[in-house]
Amino acid sequence: MPDLSLYLVTDRELSLGRSTLDIVRAAVAGGVTCVQLREKRCATREFVAEARAVRELLVGTGVPLIINDRIDVALAVSADGVHLGQTDMLIADARRLTGPDMLIGISAECVADAIRAQAEGADYVGISPVFATPTKTDTAPALGLDGVAAIRAAVSLPLVGIGGIGPDNAAEVIRAGCDGIAVVSAIVSAPDPKEAASRLRTIIRAAKELS
Ligand code: TZP
Ligand code: MG
């Protein structure tokens, strides 16, 4: 299982005019351990081309590339994984397409979602939103740290918390039971994405040592 401790989720609209490739390059230099390419509005061939470019950028870094929502794009570029939501393809069907080796991450908003994802064979669960966030507003109510702890108690899969996480609260999310944190704006909208990633990585390392 790859290291999911600092998981970058891209968003071109929040990248302050910088390219996703530049953001990913800086974030990896700063220490992100996993990259999810998330494109909600671009044409499929553009998504594939971008994914391939990110794939090439990540060669030799040990940082896996996960594709949001699109199994076809993940397969086209030989990504390391795909991240699916509660209304995307069921894991069993996704697995038929991906084969056994590609990681499948599932978004969960409650204990029941996480238990089901584990029973169905997910490789990790993204739990969201941990805190309310302007980046994504069509979400369930925030889980809070108690919600994180409840999911931690219910499943043994790796858990990645997402939603409203940044340097001020990353440590408490790890201490509540997450194996990693996923961030969008804390890195893609930072004035210096490399520095932002490096700071978060240091915080996460320290929180893991203490927990
Ligand atoms: N899924 C649940 S919350 C979220 C996603 C993609 C957005 C998190 O963004 P930010 O800026 O890290 O709060
Ligand atoms: Mg999705």
Please outline what is shown here.
The protein is an alpha/beta fold. Helix content is 42%, strand content 16%. It starts with 5 loop residues before the first strand and ends with a helix.
3D architecture notes:
This protein is of the alpha/beta class. The protein has a single domain (6-210), classed as TIM Barrel, CATH 3.20.20.70. 42% of the residues lie in helices and 16% in strands. It is built from nine helices and eight strands. The protein has helices spanning 20-30, 44-58, 71-76, 91-98, 111-120, 144-154, 170-175, 185-188, 193-210, and strands at 6-9, 34-37, 65-68, 81-84, 103-108, 124-127, 159-162, 180-183. Strands 1-2-3-4-5-6-7-8 form an eight-stranded parallel β-barrel, surrounded by six helices. Strand 3, helix 3 and strand 4 (81-84) form a beta-alpha-beta unit. Helix 1 packs parallel to helix 2 (44-58) and helix 1 (20-30) crosses helix 9. The longest helix has 18 residues, at 193-210. The radius of gyration is 16 Å and the shape is globular. The two termini are 20 Å apart. The model has no long low-confidence stretch (mean pLDDT 97). Residues 68-69, 85, 88 line the site of magnesium ion (MG).
